[in-house]
Design a protein that fits this description.
Layout lengths: L4 E5 L7 E6 L3 H12 L3 E6 L5 H8 L3 E5 L11 H10 L8 E5 L4 H9 L4 E4 L4 H8 L8
Parallel strand pairs: 2-3, 2-4, 4-5, 5-6
Antiparallel strand pairs: 1-3
C-alpha cells in the first residue's frame, strides 16, 4: 500500500515535468505513472483529498490529474473539493488539471467546464486519449 503521498515515478532527466496524480486507488496511480514514464515525467501520487491542496501548492506541478471520486469517507473530501481549493487560490488556479472518472455524465462535464477543466478522461484510461490530453501541458523546466 502506498503512503498518502509518495513519488510513484521519477525521471532521471533533471528538467522532467512534475505531475501530481490524485487517486485513491494505488493501482490506478501506478497505471498513470507507467503511462507518464514514456513522457519522461516525475509523478507524485496522492491517495486522498485531505492533503492534496497543500501538496500541490508546495510542489507547483506542471499538471494535476485528479479522480473525481476519491473516497467513500466524506471527511476525506473528493476530487470536487480539490478542484474548488485549487480554483480559489491565485497561486494554484493556473495549474492545468485533467479530471479522470469512471462516472461521467453530460451534467458532470458541464460542471467541470464551468470550473475551467478542459480535459475529462473516462476510466479505464486508454493510452491514446490520455497522451493527447497530457502532452499539451508538459512544459519543461529550464
Amino acid at each position: 500500500m502506498l503512503p498518502k503521498t509518495s513519488p510513484i515515478a521519477e525521471s532521471s532527466h533533471p528538467s522532467s515535468a512534475r505531475i501530481v496524480v490524485i487517486d485513491d486507488e494505488p493501482m490506478a496511480q501506478l497505471h498513470i505513472a507507467g503511462l507518464l514514464q514514456y513522457l519522461d515525467c516525475t509523478t507524485l501520487g496522492i491517495l486522498s483529498a485531505d492533503n492534496a491542496y497543500a501538496t500541490i501548492r508546495h510542489q507547483q506541478p506542471q499538471l494535476v490529474i485528479v479522480d473525481l471520486k476519491l473516497s467513500n469517507d466524506p471527511a476525506d473530501g473528493s476530487g470536487w473539493t480539490v478542484l474548488d481549493q485549487l480554483n480559489s487560490d491565485p497561486f494554484t488556479a493556473d495549474i492545468p488539471v485533467i479530471v479522470i472518472s469512471a462516472y461521467t455524465t453530460a451534467r458532470i462535464h458541464a460542471r467541470l467546464t464551468e470550473r475551467g477543466i478542459k480535459s475529462v478522461l473516462e476510466k479505464p484510461l486508454q493510452a491514446v486519449p490520455f497522451y493527447a490530453a497530457v502532452r499539451p501541458w508538459l512544459k519543461r523546466s529550464p
